[in-house]
Design a protein that fits this description.
- It is globular, with a radius of gyration of 23 Å.
- Helix 4 runs parallel beside helix 6, helix 5 runs parallel beside helix 11 and helix 16 packs across helix 17.
- The protein has three domains: 90 residues, NAD(P)-binding Rossmann-like Domain (Rossmann fold, 3-Layer(aba) Sandwich); 206 residues, 3-Layer(aba) Sandwich (UDP-N-acetylmuramoyl-L-alanine:D-glutamate ligase), CATH 3.40.1190; 134 residues, Protein-Tyrosine Phosphatase, Chain A (Alpha-Beta Complex).
- With 454 residues, it is an alpha/beta fold.
- 33% of the residues lie in helices and 20% in strands.
- The longest helix has 16 residues.
- Cell wall formation. Catalyzes the addition of glutamate to the nucleotide precursor UDP-N-acetylmuramoyl-L-alanine (UMA).
Length: 454
């Protein structure tokens, strides 16, 4: 870790805890800052705040008092999930207090190169693939996963050595709080419409994603999904070297799908059907990962071997089990229609039972109809089950079953299936009507699958 002097004796307010806030507070404290942590959760219910207090760090919990900003802070480090219209954040902006997220701190102290990955969908899978590939045949150091994937970037950066790499998943929320952040290689998997409740407009959302390349120079590489005309246009406004990937056309200096095979430039890497994870979206993810691996000097054989044995990450088209010839897949991370469409692209609909439903955000599901056509059966739960049932009927699905939740959906799906079928949880909705998060929803699905074996 670089022991920078930037924050020595500077008063810094860390707003919001969870993993990233906790790590940011610890790092700033180690760098000699005078840290105050403010979190809305009451102290007696807040183990992170209790842990920081034990380290001698000042904590204020239970509310976000505006008068805190009377203390002349020189910096605010904000939890990415806290919106900019939060009164304390808005007041900090009014006072011209710089507002960062902890990924900026991570960059400032990191001794090793950073590979940054952002996009609407596919970030976690692509990040995991890249981490796996960069650890193949490695003779020195290690590639560490960090960021939105669940490992606080500042904690990882404070421990990483000069010979390592940090492979960092970055959300739009995190990228709104960067200043000097400059990855060696950046990847944008795709850009669709998302998080408009936070960003207010699509323009703001796209700008947040594009911030990943703001400080990059001709020495750096920007890996872009060439299937997107929008990204092609945006690529003209970067100083980085642009390296494309595409499933629709040959791209001269990047990675592409051609006649069922994955290529980097003119070199065949592997057959698409050798990938260990299903779906057209995972071909895109793999192509992005291949570009990064090749730029970092990983051999073709190492790439092929690693990607053929990679079976996904938890809750993202994750293979769970095979029971009596039925394969079960957990795609609980599919919290919108687009993610479910992408998951469905990897299966034969006439041999597929789909489990879907969840939080009603007021949207319809007509965009799913082309992807649902020909599905053998659909089992629906949650607040949106009636809406989805209407959509399924318009898609021509004959077997539409409504049930209470994921746990009851699994045995019903099994009853409708036969050997050779796949049973896929891909909800197309957030989980919060019934489950605290998509991870718990996916865990409940996998537990219910295990129950079938008894």
């Amino acid at each position: 870790m670089k022991h920078i002097k930037t924050y020595e004796n500077e008063k810094v307010l860390v707003l919001g805890l969870a993993k990233s806030g906790y790590s940011a507070a610890e790092l700033l404290n180690d760098l000699g800052a005078l840290v105050t942590v403010n979190d809305g959760k009451p102290f007696e219910e807040n183990p992170e705040a209790q842990g920081l207090l034990e380290q001698g760090i000042r904590v204020i919990t239970g509310s976000h008092p505006i008068e805190l900003l009377d203390e002349d802070f020189s910096l605010m480090v904000k939890n990415p999930g806290i919106p900019y219209d939060n009164p304390l954040v808005a007041k900090a902006e009014e006072l011209h207090i710089p507002i960062l997220t902890e990924v900026e701190l991570a960059y400032q102290v990191a001794e090793c190169p950073i590979v940054g990955i952002t996009g609407t969908n596919g970030k976690t899978t692509t990040t995991t693939m890249i981490g796996l590939l960069l650890n193949q045949e490695r003779k020195a150091g290690k590639a560490h996963l960090a960021g939105n994937i669940g490992f606080p970037a500042s904690a990882v950066a404070s421990k990483a050595q000069a010979e390592d790499d940090i492979v960092m998943e970055l959300s739009s929320f995190q990228l709104m709080g960067v200043e000097a952040f400059k990855p060696q290689i950046a990847v944008i998997t795709n850009i669709y419409e998302a998080h408009l409740d936070y960003h207010k407009t699509r323009k703001n959302y796209v700008a947040a994603k594009w911030a990943i390349q703001e400080n990059m120079t001709e020495e750096n590489y920007l890996v872009l999904n060439w299937n997107s005309e929008e990204l092609q246009v945006m690529s003209k406004n970067t100083r980085a070297q642009v390296v494309p990937f595409s499933t629709k056309e040959k791209v001269a200096n990047g990675a592409y799908l051609f006649e069922g095979d994955l290529y980097y430039k003119e070199e065949k890497i592997m057959a698409a059907d050798e990938l260990g994870v299903p779906g057209a979206h995972n071909i895109e993810n793999a192509l992005a990962a291949i570009v990064v691996a090749k730029l970092k000097g990983v051999s073709t054989e190492a790439i092929r071997q690693a990607l053929s044995t990679f079976h996904g990450v938890p809750h993202r088209t994750q293979y769970v089990d095979t029971i009596e010839g039925r394969k079960f897949y957990n795609d609980s991370k599919a919290t919108n229609s687009l993610a479910t469409e992408m998951a469905l692209s990897g299966f034969d609909n006439d041999k597929l039972i789909l489990l879907a439903g969840g939080l009603d955000r007021g949207n319809g599901f007509d965009e799913l109809i082309p992807s649902l056509e020909g599905i053998k059966a659909i089992i629906l739960f949650g607040e949106t089950k009636d809406k989805l049932a209407e959509t399924a009927k318009r898609a021509g699905i004959e077997t539409v079953i409504l049930t209470s939740n994921v746990e009851t959906a699994v045995p019903l799906a099994y009853e409708q299936s036969e050997a050779g079928d796949s049973i896929l949880l891909s909800p197309a909705n957030a989980s919060w009507d019934q489950y605290p998060n998509f991870e718990i929803r996916g865990d409940k699905f996998m537990q219910a699958v295990k129950q079938l074996e008894k």
